[in-house]
Amino acid sequence: MESLRIEVDEEFINGLIDKVIEENTQVQGLKNLNVQLREDGINFQMEVNFLGKDSTVESLIKILEKPEDLENGKLRLSLSGDEGVRKILEGIFYILSEFSEAVSSKDYEILIDFNKIKINPFIDTMLKSLKISRFVLQDGKFELVLDFKK
Amino acid sequence: MKEILLEIDEKAAKEFLIKALENSKFHFLKSIFDHVSNIEFSDNEIRFKVLMFKYYLKLKTYPKALTGRYEFFHNIPAKMIKKEELPKFVELNDKTIIINIPENPISKNISIEKFEIKNGKLKLILGLN
Known about the structure:
The complex is a heterodimer.
Chain A: E1 4-9, H1 10-23, E2 30-38, E3 41-50, E4 53-65, E5 74-81, H2 83-99, E6 103-106, E7 109-113, H3 121-128, E8 130-138, E9 141-148
Antiparallel strand pairs in A: 1-9, 2-3, 3-4, 4-5, 5-7, 6-7, 8-9
Chain B: E1 4-9, H1 10-22, H2 27-33, E2 36-42, E3 45-50, E4 53-61, E5 68-74, E6 90-92, E7 96-101, E8 110-118, E9 121-128
Antiparallel strand pairs in B: 1-9, 2-3, 3-4, 4-5, 5-7, 6-7, 8-9
Helix pairs in contact in B: 1-2
């Protein structure tokens, strides 16, 4: 086995988000952002204060297609949940798509095409030499195992 | 558990190094690692053989946060390596090598809970400050 293994749990992500939001007072109105890693995708819960009113909004990002390698693989996501959050998330991906050809969004579906990712020649070549052997969201954990291509 | 686990095994580390150096400007390191026969992770040491020479990097200290100063003891012939061929964040002395990773707003919140090199694996467990 030749592998690089990364495991992230949702408590870590949530703790980090809390700290970054706490320190960054520029994110006005956003009181809490909670992420759940579930088998069917990533669930976002946001507590927002908009025009003096507190509300909780929720959205689920479903994974429709997982990439098999980082050279030609594709990650396809679908956004569901509250209309408002869906629009915000789609907006974020839309902004990303302006910067990178690798990201495109249409009708609440997001496509990340690894073939089109261009960061810098060094990182690109490194990414191309990796194969994904495990990509799992389960029990509050994200697990990724990468293998080097021979 | 508030954690991130990163784990890499010996073979993947070797492939990674070879691929990384293939694409780098570090001619001397490239010529060394073209001849690396294997990389071993054990007892907090990274050992590697180049032709008939055996080299090691032994973990001395690592920072509390993810970014900062990592220090290793080594027996690599420092004089043979051109300083300008090394990346800016690496400082190579006769007996030690220091890797200084600059801080950024996200990484300063991330702590290193465990950093160990043993039983064929390099393992890094990250937590929150």
